[in-house]
Amino acid sequence: MKVVILLGAPGAGKGTQAPLLANRLGVPIVATGDLFRSAVRDGTPLGLEARRYMDAGQLVPDDITVRLLLDRLGRADAHGGVVLDGFPRTAVQAAALDEALAERGERVSAAVLIDVPEDEVMRRMSGRWICRAAGHPYHAVFSPPHTPGVCDIDGSELYQRADDEPDTVRARMAQQLGALADVIAHYRTAGVLLSVDGLQGIDDVAAAIDAALVEAGLADAVESEDVR
Ligand code: ADP
Ligand code: ADP
Question: Does the pLDDT value for residue 227 go beyond 80?
Answer without folding.
Answer: no
